[in-house]
Predict the structure.
Amino acid sequence: MAGGHRYQLQEALSLDPPTTTHRKTHTSLRIQISESYTPRHQKLDFVAEDLRLREIPRLRNVIAGHYFIHSQSDARRHACMNHINTLLAHAALTPDQETSALIPPIHLATTYERERDNSYPRGYQYARDGNPTRHLLENTLTSLESGFACCTFASGMATCHSILQALKPNAHIIIPEDVYHGLRVLVFDENASIGLRVSTVDMTSVDEVEAALTEETQLIWVETPSNPLLQISDIRAISKIATRAGATLVVDGTWTTPILQRPFELGADLVIHSLTKYMAGHSDVLGGAVVAREESELFHNISRLQQRVGAVMDPFSCWLTLRGLRTLAVRLRAQCDNAEAVAAFLRDQPRIHAVYYPGLEAHPGHDVARAQMKRFGAMVSFEIDGSEQDAIAVAANVRVFRRATSLGGTESLIEHRSSMEGRDTSTSPTLLRLSLGLEYPDDLIHDLAQALENI
């Protein structure tokens, strides 16, 4: 099984008897980490002094996140990182062992030299099978999601495709009616050859999800908030349905990131990300990832596909994503602030028919979103009270917003979604979707106000 380092903390953590060193009594905690799938670090022993048992869960995440602990001071430093914002600020800051460079280098090599005995003692032999920079990103994402392991791919769609391909033949899956258009095309058009059977449901209704189950249901796909209507699905409630049915629950975390929503804590089995969006955050990276909560046959198959098919994320994109992660917390905070301000403005405009943002109390999913999200995100959709041409005119008249697809970058984007999706779209022709960036909120509001005045 390939796809990066999968560290497993031994089930039995043995505490050595208290010892005295330099006249100071402390507990010596010896932890052995074994790597199951690649031999790069077959065993790593270290002694972390002055760590209490309550710190073991954090230590587990630090290890899983590939934060190599080279000294007792490193162990103490990482044990003090209690909040995800702090972990993000230090994401993958593992000083180079040869130069002490704080930022890790990019490993671009595609092949690696064998030893004279024909072995690969450092675990790398070919870039499709593994790359140090990619593994650093995968293990960092694993840590941020508090998961078991991660596989990264060349795009978010390559990630989705690999999950579908990893299912057993003739699988039945359940997806939302309101979902990213690319996933809908992938499911119905590109995977027909593998006998995939699909049910689309109103994922805001737990009853509809349960009614769609069959004995062959292998997977339930949740996108919350959904694209583009920002509908909210109750992850915890749906996870209970999936568990009873023996199905895997996949949650798309692209719009929320690990900062705003913690799918594993709500019962999800897999979390996917288009790293192109908020995680990398600068509209210059293409990549995707799937993180598993625990080891499973499905994730084993996904990891095998990553290795054999080779739709892997390139090292430079991995490095750029790691760089982007370090500013994710501050970027997303400002973007959420802007979304809340813009949604409140749009709600009161006479030329607006509807505003879709779960942060508004009138949103039908507001209570569920408030319960499972820390904030309501940085995406807003709205419908013009008029024609399709009116909606297109608003997009044409903006001066600060950029007319482009995608989301999550520093710049604010506006998109006429139905024309982007094409002839088979189910999106209203009067809907515009906004991705809020880092601009001053008054500039964004004034820009939308003048655009609306000109229709």
